[in-house]
Every structure is written in structure tokens, then in C-alpha cells.
Amino acid sequence: MNILEDVQNAQKKAEEEKNKTLAIITNFTDGLLVFDKKNKLSLINPQAQNFLGISSKKIIGKSISELTGFSALNSLFKTFEGANKNAKKVFRKEFSLKKDSILEISTLPIIREKEKLGFLIILHDITREKIIEKAKSDFVSLAAHQLRMPLSGIKWGISMLLEEDFGKLSKEQKDTLRKIYYANERIVALTNDLLNVIKIEEGKLLYNLTKKDIVEITKKTIDILEEIIQERGIKIEFLVEKKIPKVKVDEEKISFCIQNLIENAIIYNIPKGNVKIILKYDEIKKEVLFSVRDTGIGVLKEEQKKLFTKFFRGSLALKKETVGSGLGLFVAKNIIEAHGGKIWFESEGKEKGSTFYFSLPIR
Amino acid sequence: MKKILIIEDDLYLKELIVKKLKKENFEVLETSNGKKGLEKIKTERPDLVLLDLILPEINGYDILTQVKADPEISNIPIIIISNLGQIQEIRKGLKSGAVDYLIKAHFTPTKIIEKVKRYI
User: Who among B12, B17, B83 is closest to A145 (CB)?
Assistant: First the structure.
């Protein structure tokens, strides 16, 4: 009698637990689809039905091949083409079924004690994040334009005054104008840095990643810096060790990092110093390694920990160049980390030069 | 004498670059209106166009597209001068057929004219 009661109680408890779990799944704000070992749909919660516009009655128990007949599910499966179903990792992608609605889809295997029981699809609504991202991007575009407009007027006017297009100037007048010109250049650079910070905050996890050739991006960046390289008489070397595979990156953001690191190596160098850029591929770690070495001022040991923090500028850097916002490395760190990479540097200290590195995984 | 057309709605910037271009012995045509700019490209056939993007009536991108679609004028080199500078904006400008894209706050008139000389 007692045994029966115990069994009944245990059953009741198990039933309660099951109901609890089911209630959680039902009320979950993300959409969930569970497929069993045989690729048959064993569970779909109301939110997923809502996202996909299909009721569970029509589709539950059916296999993937049967479900491709439903257009919403067909496009969902297509999004996963190329994803390795047996991989243990989470696969993520953006997906849009309706206009003005963007979902982030993740798929992952369900594993218990090394046995694969099926897989799970999670639909997460990111429409709001996307709208904010777009608004930010529009703001940056507008702000850049509006801020640069008066700065261009100042730059153009002063440069022409200095070139004596409006008549001869005394040495003192020229000196003063030159100072104004460089003060204006500082505002231009600061504006660019600030806008970059705003852009970095935008969509940290949802970068627009495409396979790109890092060698090409680096070459283009060196071209952009040609003028300042000549101006400072820097000898620049660019070495590519082995063939570098393409890397999934957000080109604009990675270009910013590369430019920032090379620019620093030029600016904080001695006149006619050397800059050596190396790109390597580590086949074991499956990552691309970028490094830039300079013969410049170096970083004091006691300041090395703070170098990547927002608005921080090293005291040696401050002495060398008053221009600078202390944002470049902070932004670069955010970008590299959002790509799943690492950024670091080595410096033996004052006047010993520095080497900056970043690595990007091949995914 | 080479003929340069500048389509720029900031009158002060336009005045400065026109002065500099004339000093460098270019024949200079100017307008601050997109629609008039497009007409001038057709009627005057300049050797090169300096084109702003945000313009009244027809914007710079549309001017570019229309010029590139017209075989009579499609070979005229166009340099965009703008203060828009996000990568998607630059890419769009170059894809639409501009030979170069210069951010005004990053180039002095002298540097812009150096670029002009490269393309004519």
C-alpha cells in the first residue's frame, strides 16, 4: 500500500515538474522549436507559432522534409543551410520573414550524456535593436556632416590665407594662422574619434560580417596614410608570412583598427623611424595575427595596464603629441573583441618602441 | 584651358575653390543647384566635375547615375567632394561611377586640385 502511494506521489511530482517546464517554455518570449533524433518536430511554443504564422496542430510530429512545404519554415531551414547540424557549437544568423521584423536565429544540439537527442531552434526578436542601430547610424552620418561643414570652411579659408591667396603675410601672421589651422585639425580628428565611439556602441554583437582579405585592407590603409608617412619620413615595411585565408570581418571597423594602430606607430615614432607591419596565419590556432612594431616613444611600465581604457593617454604620448582623444585604442579593443579576437601590446618602456598585436579567429 | 565644373551648395566653400582653380589657370563653371549642375554637364561638357552630394533639387548620387547612363557624357570624370564619410556612403559614390571621393574636412583646396590634375 505504502509502495503504491510512493509511486503515485513520485508520478505526481514528475507531472508537476513537467507542467512547470512546459509553462516556462509556453510563456517564453523567444520562439522555441525542438526536433528529435529523427529530425521530427516534437515541440513548438506559442511565440514561435506567432513568429512563423503557423499553428502547431498542422506541423507537430512532422519531419523536416515534410515541413519544407510550409513557406515560413522552408525559408527558416534555408537560413541554416551550411550549418553543421552535428556541430556542438551554436549557429547564429539573422532572419527576416515579415517586413519590419528581424529575428536572430540560433540552432544548437540537445545533448545528454554525450548522446545527441535532437536539436533546438531559438527565434529571438531583434527588431528593436535593429531600429536603434539604424537610428544611430543615421545620427552619425548627419552629425558628421553637420560638424564637418563649418570645420571645412575654416580649414579651406585658413589654408588659402597661409598659401597667400589673399595677399602677403608677415611671419607672425603666418605663425598664428598655422596654429589656428592645427587647432582646427584637432577638432576634425576629435570629431572623427567621437563619431567612431558612437558607431562602436552600435550593434556590438550584430556586426555585418563578410569574408574579406586582410592583406588588401592593410594595403589600402597604408595608402591612406601615405601623406603622413612621407611628412614624417617614416620607413614602412609590410610583410605577409604565408598565404593568409580570408577572415569574416566588418570591413569598416577592422579598417579603423588597422589604421589606428599604424597611425599610432607613425605618430609616436621618432622622426625617420621605422614601422614594421606583419601579417601571419597560425594554422594550429586557426587565427590571423596582425602586428605593427615601431621605434618610437614606448609606453611606461606603470601605465601599460591603462592603455586600452577610454580617454586614457600615456604621459609619453601626451608630451609628444598634444593632439589625440584617447579613444582610438579603446575603440580598437572593442572592435577586435566583438570579432572574437584579442588585442595586446609589448613595450620595454620609455624610448624602447612598442609592438601592437591583434588576432582574429577564422570562422 | 581645361574646364572644371563645380556643383556645391555651400557658397563660401565654392567661392574658395573657384578662386584657387582660377589661380591654377582652369576655366571654372559653378552652380549650387543639382538640377542646374546636371544641365551644365550636358551643355558645357566640362573636362571634370567636382560634385557635392547633398544638393537642392537633384542630389549628387542621382546626378552621377544620370551622367553615367548617358553615353554622350558618361566619360567625364567626376570627383565627389562631401562631408558625408561613412563607408557605405563612400562605397555608394564610387559604385555610382565617381573616380574619387574626398571628404571636405580632410582636404584643402590645394590637395583637391592635385587630385583634379590626376584625372585630366
Answer: B83
In a domain, A10, yes or no: no
Quote the domain boundaries for residue A296: 207-363
ipTM: 0.94
Q: How far is A140 from chain B (nearest CA, A)?
A: 9
Name the stretches of chain A with pLDDT < 50. Answer: 203, 205-206
Model pTM above 0.80:
no
Question: Which of A125, A147, A168 lies at the terminal end of a domain, its last residue?
Answer: A125
- Spatial distance between the Cα atoms of B30 and A232, rounded to a whole number of angstroms: 37
Nearest CB to B105 within list A155, A251, A252: A155
Q: Do residues A216 and A257 lie in contact, with contact meaning Cβ atoms separated by under 8 Å?
A: no
Q: Does residue A137 belong to the interface with chain B, where contact is any CB pair within 8 Å? A: yes
Give me the amino acid identity at B86.
Answer: Q
- Chain B positions touching A145 (Cβ under 8 A) are 54, 82-84
Question: Cβ contacts (< 8 Å) between A153 and chain B: which residues?
Answer: 10, 12-13
Residue A185 in any domain: the answer is yes
Domain count, chain A: 3
Question: Which helix (DSSP H) or strand (DSSP E) does residue A25 occupy?
Answer: helix A2-27
Residue B84 contacts A, CB cutoff 8 Å: yes
Residue (of A213, A280, A218, A198) closest to A248 by Cα position: A213
Question: What is the domain partition of chain B in residue ranges?
Answer: 3-119
Q: If one looks up domain B3-119 in CATH, what number appears? A: 3.40.50.2300
